[in-house]
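FW: tagging you since you asked about this chain on Friday. Here's the raw sequence from the shared folder, copied in full. Didn't touch anything.
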Amino acid sequence: MAHEALVLLGVVQVPVANLYFVRNIGGGVGERQHSKRQAQRLEVLFSKTVIDHENHRHWIDGYVDQSDVLSVLKHVGGSKALHQNNATGSYPRLSGQRVAYTHGRHRVEASKKLDPQSYWTILLHSTDLAMLTRSLVVQRRTEQFYYEEPYTDGFIYSKLREHLVDSSDYNSWYMRLSTNKQNNFQTINKHPDVPKALDRLIDFPGLIDALKLGNFRKYSAWGLFSEANMCLGHIYGEWSRYTRGNRSVQRCLTPQTVELLEGRAPAVSQSDHEWVRAVFRARLVFSEITDQQQRNELERGILGTSGMIPSLRLFQANMLYLGIAAQIIWSLLVPSEFRKTAKGEGSTTLQSALRECWVETEPYVEIREGEFQPVLGPPSFDLAYNTVMVAALRQFAYMAREGPKIERGEPALRLSTDDVNSCESLFQRRAKLLGFRNCLIEQGAAKPAIPFSPEKHVLELGEDGFLNRIERRCGRPFARVFPIIQEDAFLPLLLEEGKLGTITEAFILKDLVRSFLPHCSFKFDLSRRSIHINGPALEVEQQLVHSGHGESMSVDLSREVNMDHNSYHILDVESTGMDVDTPMASPVAPMFEDEDVPMEDLFFEPASVQPPAFGLIDACGG
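HL: got it, structure written out here
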């Protein structure tokens, strides 16, 4: 549309009842999302203040069709009279005329809620309304005005992807980012798979809105972009399935809808099942979808979610937890010289670094702390990698600076030096058994250490009750559930069917493993006995003590274990007759506090291990 096709008529006051909001300006890419919470906040604000209609910052652009110009001008006394009134600060009222607008929706809705008869001051233009959504001029005007809240990182990211790099529009959005976030954005661009995965989420405005740009350099430094891409693909796949690939439905996904659904497991938890049904009945989710058949399809798809409903908020919290495990692995399994090289290059993933020092060996899977069962099939790097990563997640409190989260009034976890040393030594012996070889691992595996035997605790509050709060289902675990993690965080146990109808820590860890880590399957070799390495012997070769399975063994060794979301045991998604409490009529979306990890000392050195500066696969002494 030519610039001349947009004509300013003047400033008028229009009844809010006559204003209608037009969506999908510029195709709807990166469109700013409506927030019911923000509209309610403004409603409270307006009820306690007087709106200054003479302040141009409160004005909203409005549009009428070119065919209505004569009747509009006649209503306000003509063009000359309108301009004269405007020059003296007078804004005639324009009644009986519907006016389109493209920004300021929260303000208009708040005013309409307080007083349906109220007016709003409009900077009125005439244009071809049939071309309004495709007008670049309207798009730029929509984006340039003041908003009630700052732009989110996710919205800015969407706008940057919409414009050509270094164009004036691109630069205007880029400069809205802090220097730190600009650096993080450039880090994303250096890894082609990452922007590709993120860009697919732009079609889901409520998902991309939660993107935080402040931590991607950390993800890169930890070498976790492979895991990040895996989970971003999982998020895209799940929400595409919920929306059945319907782009118009995807554009209706608001941040509020995501916040009310994220972290729920409606196909496993009865209370989550009822929660999802309640928010759909109350039209608190997908509120802009009015077709009931479409709403029913959305509800059925979400109720059938095999794991937890994913989101970027959960992704970011879990990436910080994985980052703790990654730092443990870098520090205990990768020599310092290679770490420096990898950090300098900035493109080495943790998986590729470990693959460099992995030699094919007979496959094992850990079934209890330090006890391994042989499995059938060829050597598997993915199985070895997943076993090491899960071990780091399981015992992170003993090997990292960060401990479990502590809630108010709870004592901190107390660890003995012996426990720390024995846990680190066992970690390196574990890596050696699984096929990882270098000087650092050899040195650590040979260190004298007592058997690792962490203290056991009892969870006073029921596991399901404690995990009822969504913020407890992601990120660094809480001290209350850390003992459960120590008991359950083994691949065979995580992949077993849990107790139907409740959320357990094992289920949460299972969801994390299947969302982030490489998929693999294994079947136990029942012709061979398990191997124990949690003992005082110095060398792995000398400590392979064969034994039978103890009475406490709870793993079903006769089945094949497959790391795939399709193997979840789920509730009947059509079932509605559950004897559980229905959520409140207006559920409140949970608020997540952003976790953070300092950038300094990303690769910390454990106090008990001083890694030598050898090459990655060098044998000690040459």
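FW: The two ends are 72 Å apart (CA to CA).
HL: agreed, and Residues 3-144 form one domain.
FW: great, closing this out.
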